[in-house]
Specification:
3 strands
């Protein structure tokens, strides 16, 4: 990856960390809602995430509060932008694709279409080089998966990160 691309990715992460999207817990907007609190014991990062689904299984809103490093906070901000308005199948695909990106050890994905679907989340490609930071990037995604399971709308899945 070129230095200018790494700088661009770093700027995306810093922008989301400074101006997070979806930050702020609140009242449920729909009848189907759930909350998950996740902590990364390695570094102390934490996030509480609320998700609202409509009757058709579409994510209507994601709200969150958290504290920690720029990577963990920016990742949940990017997650918000990617999943609001998406159905559960698309959210599952996005989550799986982001996990694959984190497990690529910084190499990125072989599928350019998958990277396109991730949008700003591709900024976290380099994080995969640092195993201690992967958990930071996945913290919000783990909270989302757990919250969706708690709604009863999404099946329990094995975590492999």
């Amino acid at each position: 990856m070129s230095t200018s691309m790494e700088q661009l990715y770093q700027q995306v992460i810093l922008d989301h960390a400074k101006h997070p999207h979806g930050r702020g817990l609140g009242a449920a907007a729909t009848a189907v809602t759930a909350e998950s609190h996740q902590v990364n014991p390695t570094c102390g990062d934490e996030v509480t995430l609320q998700v609202d689904l409509d009757d058709a299984g579409t994510v209507r809103d994601v709200r969150w509060e958290g504290q920690g490093c720029s990577i963990s906070q920016a990742s949940v901000s990017v997650l918000h932008d990617l999943v609001v308005g998406e159905d559960l199948a698309s959210v599952g695909d996005l989550t799986g694709t982001f996990r694959a990106l984190m497990q690529s050890r910084g190499a990125g994905l072989d599928d350019p279409d998958a990277e396109d679907r991730l949008g700003d989340a591709t900024a976290f490609t380099g994080v995969g080089k640092y195993s201690a930071r992967v958990k930071c990037a996945l913290l919000g995604w783990t909270a989302l998966t757990d919250a969706l399971i708690k709604t009863g709308a999404a099946p329990a899945a094995k975590e492999d990160a």
